[in-house]
Amino acid sequence: MDQQSAHIPFFYLASYKVGTLFFGTSASSNVGSDPVPILKMGADITIAAFTGGLFIGLCLATATYFITRKIYTRIRSCRRLNQDNACESQL
């Protein structure tokens, strides 16, 4: 397993945990041999993981937007002042 795919289980677990906070549910291991509760549990896990991933993604995207905006605003203002060398150390 390469290093990038080693992080995937962490993100799936984090998405699931955040999703369960929204819905207040968790997967139980006491389902027995009846396939209907197992299928329902699969749907609950999928919905919780999707919702958690959506929430985490929106938070990270918002933070990334504002960080990138600040960086590019600073670059633009330095170029306007024609002080590229002086501003590179500030980035």
Q: Tags for this entry?
A:
91 residues; mainly alpha; 4 helices; 0% strand; elongated
Structural description of this entry:
This protein starts with a helix and ends with a helix. It is mainly α and 91 residues long. It has one domain. The chain has four helices and no strands. The model has no long low-confidence stretch (mean pLDDT 78). The protein has helices spanning 3-6, 8-23, 35-80, 84-88.
The largest sheet, given as strand count, sense and whether it forms a barrel, is:
none
State the separation between the terminal residues, measured CA to CA.
Answer: 36 Å
Helix-strand makeup class: mainly alpha
**Average pLDDT score:** 78
How many individual helices?
4
Q: Sketch the topology as an H/E string, one letter per element.
A: HHHH
Strand content: under 5%
Please write out the topology.
Layout: H1 3-6, H2 8-23, H3 35-80, H4 84-88
Brief description of this entry?
The chain has 91 residues and is mainly α.
